Amino acid sequence: MSRRSGILEFAVLGLLRESPMHGYELRKRLNTSLGIFRAFSYGTLYPCLKTLVANGWLIEEPGSGPDDTPAAPLAGRRAKIVYRLTAEGKEHFEDLLSQTGPDAYEDEHFAARFAFFGQTSRDVRMRVLEGRRSRLEERLEKMRISFARTRERLDDYTLELQRHGMESVEREVRWLNELIESERAGRDQRGSGPGDAAQQDTSGETGGLPRHRDSTRPDPSDDTAT
């Protein structure tokens, strides 16, 4: 399985965990809620759905709503299919949510993981955020070294492009710092009372988000921030 296919499967399972959907509605959610999937077509989505069905993580059901009435055979139209997450699929998605390896820090996978932080335990969120920050700090250091070595040989426009790239990474690092500090503050607050220490590591609440957000925070799916 390619990394990009793995990200798509993760996102599909996460969205279907919220509610069953048709393929059309699912693709719309992937495009609007998770911008990293803007380029995905039905030709990419439906093979992914078929694979998830074959693995036993999804089941296909006929649409049951007023707008989902199967078309008459002579109309030459297919009945709409609703995709529903199975118990095995939910368990598989929860296993994916708990993973904090290097793939969770990479550009596109991090954006998908972040989109489902509301379903992720606090300790896992912290490890993913800290891993992402460490990865970007390494990238930023390499960019600065490269910039210092080549700035005398580059024209003004190329230099400006490199500065823009560094500023984008610096902005995301600052954003991650705020998220991490907010997560820590939320954890400390929840763990301040008797018996809270055991609960804090399994909480999936989004109490770690900063209270004051502004338009300068980077979009995790924004390619310029990576």
TrEMBL record:
Q: Where is this region: Disordered?
A: 183-226
Q: Which InterPro entries match?
A: Metal_resp_DNA-bind_regulator, Tscrpt_reg_PadR_N, WH-like_DNA-bd_sf, WH_DNA-bd_sf
- Coiled-coil blocks: 126-153
Could you tell me which residue ranges the Transcription regulator PadR N-terminal domain spans? 12-94
Its keywords, alphabetically, are: Coiled coil
Keyword Coiled coil listed? The answer is yes
User: Which SUPFAM superfamilies does this chain map to?
Assistant: Winged helix' DNA-binding domain
Which superkingdom heads the taxonomic lineage of this protein's source? Bacteria
Basic and acidic residues: which segments have biased composition?
211-220
Record's Pfam families? PadR (PF03551)
Note whether rRNA-binding occurs among the keywords.
Answer: no
Which PANTHER family would you find in this protein's record? CONSERVED PROTEIN, PADR-FAMILY TRANSCRIPTIONAL REGULATOR
Q: What name has this protein been given in UniProt?
A: Helix-turn-helix transcriptional regulator
